[in-house]
From TrEMBL:
Protein name: Phage holin family protein
InterPro entries, per the entry: Phage_holin_3_6
Sequence ranges of Low complexity compositional bias: 139-154
Keyword Transmembrane helix carried by entry: yes
Record lineage: Bacteria, Bacillati, Actinomycetota, Actinomycetes, Kitasatosporales
Skewed-composition ranges (Basic and acidic residues): 104-114, 165-178
């Protein structure tokens, strides 16, 4: 039994040493990745600061060019308005648009024109096409339309015929209003 206790001690020691090596290896990997990401973030911050100064220089040049032909206050006002419009356009370009908004519809049309897949709903099922007009309940008259196929009933729609009146409803045939 003394030999088995010795082997158990060696096994436990080996497992502890292996766990320590694994922890150190993972820690070193994380340190290297952190250094790389820190360097990349520093470079992005520096490029952003330089771009800010470059934008200020361009704004100054535009203001000075306008000041040559306009009063100084008008040149400064026009420069500020140009910068505000550019900032608004950049903000709009960075913000995602919902599919129902005009920008979202334009994006979806552009995506379809370039062969992009249609948006998908829950479970990656494609959204059904949206009808151009809201549905009307059976038995109600609709305004005439020039849309092709508008005069033919869709699948599952009742055949055109006389309107159902309460005195003509068959009590044996249940109907549900949902």
């Amino acid at each position: 039994m003394d030999r088995m206790d010795h082997l158990e001690h060696l096994d436990k020691h080996l497992v502890d040493e292996l766990a320590q090596v694994a922890r150190e290896t993972i820690r070193d990997e994380l340190r290297q990745q952190t250094r790389k990401q820190r360097r990349k973030a520093t470079l992005y911050a520096a490029s952003g600061a330089v771009a800010l100064y470059a934008g200020a220089a361009v704004a100054l040049a535009v203001g000075l060019a306008l000041a040559a032909v306009l009063p100084d206050w008008a040149a400064a006002l026009i420069t500020a308005a140009i910068l505000a419009v550019v900032a608004y356009l950049l903000r709009g370009a960075a913000r995602p648009h919902a599919p129902g908004t005009p920008h979202g519809r334009a994006e979806m049309a552009a995506d379809r024109a370039h062969g992009a897949a249609p948006p998908v709903g829950p479970g990656n099922a494609p959204y059904p096409p949206v009808p151009s007009a809201p549905p009307t309940p059976p038995g109600r008259a609709t305004a005439p339309t020039d849309a092709p196929g508008a005069d033919t009933p869709g699948p599952g729609a009742p055949a055109p015929g006389p309107l159902l009146r309460p005195d003509r409803i068959d009590p044996e045939n249940p109907h549900h209003r949902a």
